[in-house]
Design goal:
about 90 residues; alpha+beta; Alpha-Beta Plaits; elongated
């Protein structure tokens, strides 16, 4: 259909297992940049990212061609691997 415009915004909250305070301030910016890269590589628009030591909030303008479940799966999978590599 010509002139179709879609605007979808999603607020995602990721928590640390057991809600332990494991996201240290010294590592927070690096982790946020890594998650931003995952979101942008999946052709989505990052609106905001922030959080606390036990959880992260992400506001995304999601591409309608990308499923939300696959995006969340990719963010969780790749960010977990990144965190485990960096210790």
């Amino acid at each position: 259909m010509a002139n179709t415009y879609t605007q979808l915004y999603v607020h995602i909250v990721f928590t640390v297992k057991g809600r332990h305070n494991q996201i240290q301030n010294s590592f927070k910016d690096t982790l946020y940049k890594y998650i931003t890269g995952i979101i942008l590589n999946n052709r989505n628009k990052l609106i905001a990212i922030n959080g606390m030591p036990d959880h992260i909030h992400v506001l995304i303008g999601i591409n309608p061609e990308i499923s939300l479940s696959s995006l969340v799966r990719d963010i969780k999978h790749f960010s977990t691997n990144f965190i485990n590599e960096k210790k």
